[in-house]
Amino acid sequence: MNTTNRIPIYICCLLILVGLFGVATLAYTAKPPENILKNGDFDLNLEGWHHWTHETATALFQTEGKKAEPIVGKKVIYVKISKAGNAVWHVQLYQQPFTLEKGTTYTYSLWAKSEVPRTVKMRILHQGDPWNEYANKQINLSEAWKEFFVTFKMPADDVSSRADIIMGSQKVDVWFDHIRVYEGEFVSDIEDAEPQSVELTNKLTTTWATLKDL
């Protein structure tokens, strides 16, 4: 049997496989956008993060390891809510300050889950009066990890920006991991992730003073 024609076929197949594998590797290992937030994976425990509870609320903020099944790294943040308070803003996790630039598009993303289904709000706002909000969205959590993101364009320069999650009014424990704020549209940096896109409540800057009693 003449086998002289088989060698080119094998070589072609090998080249095709190498080419496909190489493309897939490049797509997966491409450098993700730089996270403006510090310690977004909580490997340094709560370093860089702050929390606050209203006098009507009680919550414990701590990191958990393998038991919580971290998305990235070895830890997540766990918020155990004993008293939920009377409003969603009565329990807060946040990081500040950082700079956002006028006209630049940013994405705010996070992974979250809860003891039982519940809602929380993710926000980007100015730290201090008049508490202008640049992104404000309610998201629906469940017992399984999900990624949520919101993309927004800054209407002004802000050197005192704040990223926060507000989770009062519901006595249900929550977990968060891999929290990011970065320039540009959403970029998935975790293989096989199925993010839940969320839209801005509105595309105009709002004032926290008009929303805090909701």
Can you tell me about this structure?
With 214 residues, this protein is mainly beta. The termini are far apart. The protein is built from one helix and twelve strands. The strands form two sheets. The protein has a six-stranded antiparallel sheet with strand order 1-4-9-6-7-12, with no helix packed on it. Strands 2-3-10-5-8-11 form a six-stranded mixed sheet, with no helix packed on it. It folds into two domains: 1-30; 32-210, Jelly Rolls (Sandwich), CATH 2.60.120.260. The radius of gyration is 22 Å and the shape is globular.
Sheet with most strands: 6 strands, antiparallel
| Number of E-type strands | 12
Sequence stretches where pLDDT stays below 50 over 5 or more residues: 1-5, 20-29, 201-214
Task: Give the CATH level 1 class of the largest domain.
Answer: Mainly Beta
Order of helices and strands: HEEEEEEEEEEEE
CATH architecture of the largest domain: Sandwich
N/C terminus separation: 82 Å
Q: Quickly give the structural class.
A: mainly beta
Name of the CATH superfamily of the largest domain: Galactose-binding domain-like
Rg, please?
Answer: 22 Å
Write down the CATH topology of the largest domain: Jelly Rolls
Main sheet: which strands, in order across?
Answer: 1-4-9-6-7-12
- Mean pLDDT level: 84
Amount of helix? 10-25%
Strand content: 35-45%
Topology, pairings included?
Elements: H1 6-29, E1 50-53, E2 57-64, E3 76-84, E4 91-100, E5 105-114, E6 118-126, E7 132-141, E8 146-153, E9 158-166, E10 174-183, E11 196-197, E12 206-207
